[in-house]
Every structure is written in structure tokens, then in C-alpha cells.
Amino acid sequence: MAEPSGSDSLRTSLGSLQLANPVLSASGTFGSGWEGRDFSPLSRVGALVSKTVTVRPRHGNPPPRLAETPSGMLNSIGLENKGADYFLAETLPRMRTLCRRIIINIGGEAVDEFVELAERFCEAGVDALEVNLSCPNVQEGRLLFSTEARMCERAVTAVKRVATVPVFAKLSPNVTDVTAIARAAEQGGADGITAINTLIGMAVDWRRRRPVLGRGIGGLSGPAIKPVALRMVHEISRAVRIPVIGVGGARTAEDVLEFVCAGARAVQVGTAAFVDPAVLVSIVEELARLLAAAKTTITELCGSLQAPIPVAPQPAVAPISFAPQPAVAPRPGPAGQAEGR
Predict the structure, then answer these.
(1) What is the pLDDT confidence band of residue 310, given thresholds at 50, 70 and 90?
(2) Active site residues
(3) Which of 45, 75, 171, 178 sits at 20 to 30 Å (Cα–Cα) from 134?
(4) At 27, which CATH number?
(5) Which pTM was predicted?
């Protein structure tokens, strides 16, 4: 396999996991990478992140499962996959031929399922695990593991107890305070935070009086959610001591550097790959040029976002007093008639 694309300016780390560059595929948007192998040399990206793998096969949600929206898309796939047995036997060996770093995204509806998957994939020798605590298209959208701090900490603690590789907790934006959930993941032993998953949304066909998606709701991704993702990455990076992986709407090298400046050590690119399957490698190449021109590195840029300049308090302004005005008699009009409006 060819060496990953990168230079010293692009190198980054996620805890003990060293990466040649910060560009990763986003789970669920690039399959196992096998589907994109003919478009660009995937050995040049920082890491490939798998589609979510579950213990048993899942058929997913009823169609339609995708809907394009302004500046993004809705999906309601429902974690369709062939299960861990198939992935370990057929998919993982193919992934290894594509990229030096492999991160497996694991999903479960119970803590025991996360633990079983963590044990099996660590034994198989992957580079890291991404624990999908936040898919809005399963568990009737309840998101128990990423909306309740106690449940999040419990799940991460259980996975860390058996894991021999770094563990990243993927969190949902569909919460009141994402930093509380991030701190719970850190307390449970997570080696990093992936933020964010999709925002819950829907599309409506008013002529049919029905939702567009077969399940009604789905996860919104793409450029439309980038401002939300940037804000949450920044908040999380200031709230925890572990690395943050940014995801949500990145489609250019400029986007990636914005996430890095906001506090991300690496950035996943997802929906953009539906438009251009070669975009991951294109971004890596452009990153090198931008960093060279700016005379900086990913390490130097990470978390360098400056706080807003506080606005100096303005002196109080006395309220304006409106004194009553004397009544004005109407002017006489023609033939002695009063002129009115």
C-alpha cells in the first residue's frame, strides 16, 4: 500500500492514534470505502471510517429513505448492514487494502451489544472504534445513549473495559447541552468525541398529505448543518480534555480548516462524497497548499479560535420625555369650513 498523503504540516493525532492528515470519511456515507476505490487513491486519506456495524444483520427502514433538501439531504437508512459476522469475514479484509488506518463504527440498542462488537473488532486488530450513540433512525428516535448523560457514560465505560484500541464516542446534536453529554463520555473513559451526528428533520409532500420519507423523520446532513456542527465542536473542545473529531457539512479544505480552528483534531467528510466520490483526496491535496501559504500546521491551528472581543458597555441613555403639546385649532378652509385630514 502506498504511503498516506501528508507532510509534517498535515499530521495530527487522536490520543494514541497517529494520522498522516486530518481527513476522514464519515460513517454511513462512504460504505467501507470499497465503493469509492475507483475514484481516487484512498490510501492518501487519514483514515476510513466504516458504515455502522451491528451484531446481527439489519434490513433498515422502509423506503423512501433519502430526500434531497436545500443545502443538504435527509436520510432514514436505519443502519442497514449485513451484521458483524459478514463484516469481519468479507468487508474488513477489503478495507485493509485501501487505507492504512481503519476505524470501525459500531452500533447497538443495548450496552451488551456494544461490548460484544468492541471485543470482536479489537481482536480483529482495527485501529480504533467509533461508538455510534446517536443515530436518529433507530430506537424510535429516542437516542437514549446520547441524550442522557448517565446512559452515555455507562455505555462508554462498558466499551472501554474491553477495548484495546482508542474509543471515540459519536454524539447527537439533538440535545439541550451537548457539553454535558461530552463530559459524560469523557468520564466514561472515551479517548475522543465525534461531533456531530445528523439533526432530526422531515420533508413533506403536501399534495399527498404525507411525509416524503417512509419513516416520516430522518437525519439532516450536508452544508446546511455546518454552522451548528462548528459551534458544537468549539463548545465541546473547550469542555473536555480529549480530542474532538468534527463532522457536519464539510466539503472543502477551507471547511476542514474552520473545524480545526474551532477545536477539531480531525474532520470527517460525508454528504459531499455523494456529489464527488473523489472529494476526500482532493481536500487532502488542497489542505497542503493552504497550510503552506498560511505558514502554519494542523497542530498549530487546532483550537486557535479567538474569543470574540467583548463589547464595551455603553453609557445609559436618559429616556426621551414626550411633553404634551398644546392643541392646535383647525385652520379655516374655504367658505369658513374647517380643514381636516
Answers:
(1) confident
(2) 135
(3) 45
(4) 3.20.20.70
(5) 0.88
